[in-house]
Amino acid sequence: ASNVIAFKANGTAISGCSNVPLTLRGSNVIHIREAVCVTSFAAVGNSVITSEFAGDTYNFPAASSGLNHSVSAAP
């Protein structure tokens, strides 16, 4: 599918976050689009979060660099 983002943790698709459509952010006149996915992690530890854009009519597919994310136990 085009115009979607896939979010991954350590190279593996995050459940429910593998086909997130881009939407226009508010009433922004410069057409900034965003994809949002809320999830939780079952295990404590570090993950590298990335996103991959599938491309669309005007933009080539692209991937983000990794973001280090630390998950700690709930209090």
Summarize the structure.
The protein has no helices and eight strands. The protein is an all-beta fold.
Description:
This protein is mainly beta. 0% of the residues lie in helices and 40% in strands. The protein has strands at residues 4-9, 12-13, 20-21, 23-24, 33-34, 45-53, 62-63, 67-71. Strands 1, 2, 3, 6, 7 and 8 form a six-stranded antiparallel β-sheet that branches. Strands 4-5 form a two-stranded antiparallel sheet. The protein starts with a strand and ends with a strand.
What order do the helices and strands come in, and which of them pair?
Elements: E1 4-9, E2 12-13, E3 20-21, E4 23-24, E5 33-34, E6 45-53, E7 62-63, E8 67-71
Antiparallel strand pairs: 1-2, 1-3, 1-6, 4-5, 6-7, 6-8
Content-based structural category? mainly beta
The average pLDDT is 86
Please give the share of residues in helix: under 10%
Q: What pattern of helices and strands is seen along the backbone?
A: EEEEEEEE
Q: What would you call the shape? A: elongated
Largest pleated sheet: 6 strands, antiparallel
Low-confidence stretches: none
Strand content: 35-45%
**Could you tell me how far the N terminus lies from the C terminus, measured between alpha carbons in angstroms?**
40 Å
Tally of strands: 8
Total helical elements: 0
Radius of gyration: 14 Å
